[in-house]
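Students often ask why inverse folding is considered easier than folding. One informal answer: many sequences map to the same fold, so there is more than one right answer. In these notes we will look at a single instance of the problem. The structure comes first.
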């Protein structure tokens, strides 16, 4: 790979903060963030979708660019940087369709024989509603395009599905992302996130993890970007991990190659491990690290992440040893502004960030910004995540919650789930 002087991380979430934190431990090179947040240093005032400005910055500063979120990937940031011979880590626009179009991903899985919920595709409300009423099973309604995790409706009955179809096609709540929808069978089981590093041919799995998508304890309420995670999850045994590699990850990379698409980057399979059969079904593909999965996975990583990213760029993952993981559990708890994923207020001063950090706890910022007095203010729905390591999952959870309880930004203004990792503790019993 071409020599470079600096690193540029594109994005502003906890995922990007944790990638930057890890890379700063791996290298003495400067790590810039565009646009970053109140917890990241060396921020560059460029929006993560402003590809031309990012290009100019990366060129001027001879940077290796690492892309965190899906949007710039789906807009083709990698294609543009590669054309200009700037080193960049992430999948190109075509490969990103695995995430940016649910219709593409479902048809791809059907063609490749990858296990996923049975589905139909619709582009008008009448036939979609007819389908729902003729189905004897509960369904999940998904908009085709990107919707920041909010375009999926898991329905308990036909009326809920009809309501979702109205929101998408009649109220046009998702604009172009909702031009087509996927209606699929609802699968019951436990979810796991399986993320792997790919160089177009070879695949190295990362440690397993589990996200907590719903806003309320007990997995109730609407979906969010993710309210907490832990790693590893006892759900993904070695056997299951091998099966996921053989039946999902390898066929995906091969199938993309057959379409002339080289996938370089993090490939994330959102899985449902079906109750009873214990079979992994792909609910979705993402073409990037998960947020907040990244915040629980990277603190456990004992290998040099940068060397793996460089090897993926050079298509040399095959020659890399398996990644080493600390023999520890990690738990990451997201603290959000009250009201999220609906309306919430911003601009509150965050107190309690001055706790005594040790090498077992990290606070990764998401929706925060620093004011001219150096205070950290809330600046988004998901504000920050607290990750702790522990010898047991219970220990890591307790340590994270004790730090969370010290962080405040006003009377009852912060919100977090109280049951992060409890599922993992239960599976392990
Ligand atoms: P997705 O963005 O497609 O992963 O969907 C978001 C969330 O909706 C998933 O993490 C699951 O919690 C839920 N979900 C999606 N598809 C299904 C399905 N077929 N059966 C049950 N739950 C689902
Ligand atoms: N935590 C789910 C995601 O990153 O899409």
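Output (designed amino acids):
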């Amino acid at each position: 790979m071409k020599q470079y002087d600096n690193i540029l991380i594109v994005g502003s979430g906890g995922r990007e903060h944790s990638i930057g934190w890890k890379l700063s431990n791996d290298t003495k090179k400067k790590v810039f963030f565009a646009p970053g947040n109140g917890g990241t240093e060396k921020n560059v005032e460029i929006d993560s979708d402003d590809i031309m400005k990012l290009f100019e910055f990366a060129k001027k500063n001879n940077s290796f660019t690492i892309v965190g979120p899906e949007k710039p990937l789906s807009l083709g940031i990698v294609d543009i940087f590669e054309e200009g011979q700037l080193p960049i880590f992430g999948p190109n626009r075509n490969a990103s369709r695995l995430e940016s179009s649910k219709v593409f991903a479902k048809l791809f899985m059907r063609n490749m024989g990858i296990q996923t919920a049975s589905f139909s595709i619709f582009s008008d409300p009448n036939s979609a509603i007819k389908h729902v009423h003729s189905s004897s099973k509960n369904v999940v309604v998904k908009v085709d395009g990107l919707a920041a995790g909010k375009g999926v409706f898991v329905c308990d009955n036909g009326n809920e599905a009809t309501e979702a179809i109205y929101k998408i096609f009649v109220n046009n709540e998702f604009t172009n992302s909702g031009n087509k929808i996927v209606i699929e069978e609802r699968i019951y089981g436990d979810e796991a996130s399986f993320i792997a590093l790919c160089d177009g041919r070879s695949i190295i799995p990362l440690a397993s993890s589990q996200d907590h998508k719903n806003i309320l304890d007990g997995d109730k309420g609407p979906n969010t970007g993710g309210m907490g995670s832990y790693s590893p999850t006892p759900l993904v045994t070695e056997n299951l991990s091998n099966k996921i590699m053989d039946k999902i990850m390898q066929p995906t990379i091969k199938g993309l190659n057959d379409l002339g698409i080289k996938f370089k980057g993090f490939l994330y399979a959102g899985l449902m491990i079906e109750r009873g059969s214990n079979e992994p079904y792909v609910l979705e593909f993402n073409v990037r690290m998960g947020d907040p999965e990244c915040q629980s996975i990277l603190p456990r990583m004992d290998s040099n992440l940068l060397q793996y990213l460089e090897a993926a760029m050079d298509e040399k993952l095959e020659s890399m040893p398996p990644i080493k993981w600390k023999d520890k559990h990690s738990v990451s708890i997201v603290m959000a502004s009250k009201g999220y994923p609906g309306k919430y207020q911003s601009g509150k001063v965050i107190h309690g960030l001055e706790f005594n950090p040790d090498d077992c706890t990290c606070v990764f910022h998401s929706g925060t910004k620093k004011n001219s007095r150096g205070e950290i203010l809330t600046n988004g729905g998901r504000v920050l995540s607290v990750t702790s390591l522990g010898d047991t999952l219970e220990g890591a959870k307790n340590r994270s919650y004790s730090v969370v309880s010290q962080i405040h930004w006003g009377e009852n203004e912060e919100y977090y789930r109280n049951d992060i990792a409890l599922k993992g503790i239960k599976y392990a019993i």
